[in-house]
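hey so u asked for the seq, here:
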Amino acid sequence: MTINTKNLFYIFITSHLIIWTLIPALTNNNLPLDTIEALAWGSNLDWGFNKHPPMSAFLVEIFYKIFGAQDWAYYLLSQICVIISFFVVFKFAEDFFDNKVLCLLSVLLLEGIYFYNYTTPEFNVNVCLMPFWTLTVLYLWKGFKDNKIIDWLLVGLFSGFGFLSKYLFIYLGLAMDIFLIYMIYKRKLDFKCMLSLIPFLIVLLPHLIWLTENNYITISYGLHRTGTGDQNFLDHIIHPLIFLGKQIGILIPFFLMIIFLNNKLKSKFNFKDNKLLFLLAINIVPISLVFLTSMIMGVKIRTMWMTSFYLFFGVLVIYIFQLQINLNKLKSFTAVFLILFIFSPFAYAYISITETDKRTDYEGKKFAEEAQKIWDEKYDTEIIMVNGDEWVAGNLSYHLKSRPKWNGPVKCCSLFDGRNGIDINLGK
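ran it, structure tokens below
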């Protein structure tokens, strides 16, 4: 039987996009917290914000300019990030496998990791990072393979965008540096790769200036989220073990899918194989560095922070076990894949509908309408600014027709016309 893998791949990513755009749009009353947060930042763009660098805000604001306050548009934005990542992984895999079915499997396996389905409706910095992570890896491989200047420049460009998405990109950056230094040492690469620093620094410079002008507030926030400063001896043992346990748990469906391809998997490592070394560098090294960070610093690593780290895991596992994979067992694999593919959106919809105390049940639009009514009774000017935390004030900024700028996190929420000093305190 001849399998048109490219057609199957396009059917897969199209189905994924449609399902994971429509399901949350139909079952949620309000956008999730992180998406509203990004929209709050997007209303008053800068080169950084109190919690994160600016890329997520840039992207949602582009979508707001196009679609306005349409919830489905931001679920679509998330899925565009996901399918771009899937597409890049597929193109990357084509350089590693002669059999296109293996390329397809490398992507389909990702449906066994809930980072790439169940959590994706919430557009946030983790989802935002995904396409830039994959594009950086793709052009890093091309740069290593062909040593073309354009590829190294693109590595720098997408690396810069990655850092502007989330600082955790540094772990991929360190893994890249380790690989490149090793290959230069082995004389398999020259210093042309250093050209990547030019676009990287150009892209990152405005944010670096912003950081110095704002007392490195985003870095302080990130350190606070890990619990830095409150460690005792046991934290250096417990936190990395918890991290490791969670990662194993996340990957269980992924490895079950592998087993259904062949239950007698055997591997043979050849560390002279540059393809294998590259795959280990971009998959195992970043995760190992995170584990070491937790162990050395005794800090908590939040599960969702690892979203981008497993995007090439399918390529790695398929590459290691490719000689033992039995393509005659595709029917069993397909059955398991379809169960996961269908179960995830149904589970999401069920929880979304039946649980009524979630952020996505917040009546943000109704709250904005009431606030607008109060304002219109008192004043004949537009609301141009909103004070308050990103959730309450962010919902107002998003739902109000005037699209007022979010003016920062304060304890109370207020609307005002800065031109005339008009202010209404809405409480919290």
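The longest strand covers residues 422-427. The chain has 16 helices and four strands.
lmk if thats what u needed
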